[in-house]
Amino acid sequence: MHLTKEEERILNGELGEGTQKALELLVAIGDAYNAEKMIPISRAHAASSGQEGDLYFVELLVNGGARCRVPTSTNPVYDIEYFDRKFDVPKDEGEVARRVMEAYKRVGAILSWSCLPYLAENIPLYGETVAFSESSATPYVNSVIGARTNREAAQSALAAGIIGKAPKYGLHIKENRRGTHLVRVEATLKEEFDYTLLGYHVGKRIGYGIPVITAISRRPNTEELINFCAMSNVSGAISMFHMPGFTVEASTVEEAFQGDTPKDKITVADQELKRTYEELQTTSGKIDFVMLGCPHYTLRQVEKVARLLNGKKVQDGVSFWICTSATTKVLAQRIGYVDIIERAGGHVVVDTCIDEPCWIAYKSKVGMTDSPKCAYYRRFKEVIVGRLEDCVEAAIKGKWK
Amino acid sequence: MKSSEITLKCHKIIGGYGEGEALVSHQPICFYLTDPKTGIVRERNHELAGKNLANKVLVFSSGKASSVVQIDGLFKLASHNVAPKALIVKDVETVLVVSAFIVKIPLVDRLEKDPFEIIDTGDFVKVNAERGIVTVTKREL
Q1: What is the pLDDT along chain B (141 residues), one digit of tens a residue?
Q2: Quick check: A90 and A360 in contact, CB under 8 A?
């Protein structure tokens, strides 16, 4: 791999040990992919988490003097003080989370603690070269926005944010952004949850690749695209897709494949989505809690919940949670949605996600969610997956069907 | 009878030296689905289910699963001193590079011959990533 004089100096430790380690990691990744050189990036998103591996690396860099050179946002962890008042989070787990959050602050990151940084706190532009980890953010940034990022790990994205560069390989190169699979959607896509099921199904069918999705009858909205991105990376690894006419990089199917022929063609009809829905359920009946906001709910989704819960009460013995970003919560509070949800007995919690150890109290419980991603990474026992509206209805009744 | 040594060139990704008994997996590996205290593979229906990764030279097709769990999985094994001594992989990807980098385990790919044809579980393997050389001593049958 070709390295500049400045890069050589960093590798020799002249800018400190933290920066040296960050570049060493990027060079190792570049070597793995035979990258010719490093290219500048203008922003990064580190998929931080309250886990030991993440803590070790961010502390190694920051204690070695490293600081972010370009805007670098962070993924959900959890506020131990908030959760300690509600559940008994094991002391050592809580300490890991606290130290992770402290270390990202010291390294100079944008403390968004959000999995949708591209909506508010750290927004790439079309054609921008970036390093975004978080498996649901990577495809959104590549496909919907048309910026360029590889499928990064938290650590490689943080290292890129510190160096301000990433190795040039994979999705940074135009030819590698062409479609691999043709997906014809015959199913009717009416609402968010249909895109949730579509994403889960397409990820499962394709596994690894760049699907080109056709025959969609109307323009998908932000939430529908977010769901497609998130769910296709639970059942598969889809770092980019094209929806010609709706996503930005290709306006026709031919353009999406860059003249190549598809490796495979699949058709998705209503019955496939119905089967996907059925596969996701592990139980039915009585529920202990509802968990929404995986990925983080947008303001529009919080508004929808507030409208459905207005003047109602969540059933006694059922907990009701919405995970969102601090940015969204501020607006939701200002508008009055949070008040409505809290009056109904629900909680709107920021900076966290279902895949964090803070939810230990639900280990043996039954939860309902609108997110197969939440179901997959769940730290609880049984799960029912349904539409947002179904989840709210179940919370009020205390059971689903 | 003294068994013979086979020397193969390889491509270094993470440097260092590690040696041990080979453990071969044709299936991708998720380090999170192992027992962090012992190194025993817990993933149901995996060809290595019940086998122990601790101190082995792992020869495998690729990594799998989300970056968070994969990295944390290998990190926990290393904290309990039950991580593999070296990794020989066929299809490398970013998350695997990050995982090996963090725990400082040598990682190589592109052996001059297909590792699945040359190396069997139980062979003794030395991985000198720094020099780009893998040495295999076949297990005596």
Answers
A1: 456 899 999 999 999 999 999 999 999 999 989 999 999 999 888 999 999 999 999 999 998 877 788 899 999 999 999 999 999 999 999 999 999 999 999 999 999 999 999 999 999 999 999 999 999 999 887
A2: yes
Q: How far is CA B63 from CA A245, A301, B30, B33, B73, in A?
A: 35, 36, 6, 12, 12
Q: Answer whether A228's CB lies under 8 Å from A194's CB.
A: no
Give the integer Cα–Cα distance in Å for B87 and B60.
8
Q: Do the beta carbons of residue B107 and residue B1 sit within 8 Å?
A: no
Closest residue on chain B to A53 (Cα): B72
* Selected residues 63-92 of chain B with any CB under 8 Å from a CB in chain A: 66-68, 71-72, 74-76, 79, 92
Handedness of CA A318, A369, A279, B30 (dihedral sign): negative
The reply to whether the predicted model has a pTM over 0.90 is yes
Domains and CATH numbers, chain A: 5-174 (3.30.499.10), 178-278 (no CATH), 281-400 (3.30.499.10)
- Find, in chain B, the residue whose alpha carbon is nearest to that of A373: B66
Residue A134 in contact with partner chain B when CB distance is under 8 A: no
Residue A191: what are its φ and ψ, rounded to 5°? -155, 175
Report the complex ipTM.
0.91
Instruction: Sort A72 into a burial class: Cβ within 10 Å, 0-12 / 13-18 / 19+.
Output: buried
Tell me the DSSP string of chain B: -PPPEEEEE-EEEE--EEEEEEEEESS-B-GGGB-TTT-BB--TT-TTTT-B-TT-EEEES-B-S-HHHHHHHHHHHHHTT-S-SEEEESS--HHHHHHHHHHT--EEE--SS-HHHH--TT-EEEEETTTTEEEEEPPP-
If residue A266 lies in a helix (H) or strand (E), which one and from where to where?
Answer: strand A264-268
Structure-block tokens of residue B32: 């999170």
Task: State the architecture of B5-137 in CATH terms.
Answer: 3-Layer(bba) Sandwich (3.50)
A54 vs B68: CB contact, 8 Å cut-off? yes
Distance, CA of A4 to CA of A258 (rounded, Å): 33
B12 contacts on A by Cβ (under 8 Å):
31
Q: Determine the distance from the C-alpha atom of residue A307 to the mean position of all C-alpha atoms in its chain, rounded to a whole number.
A: 26
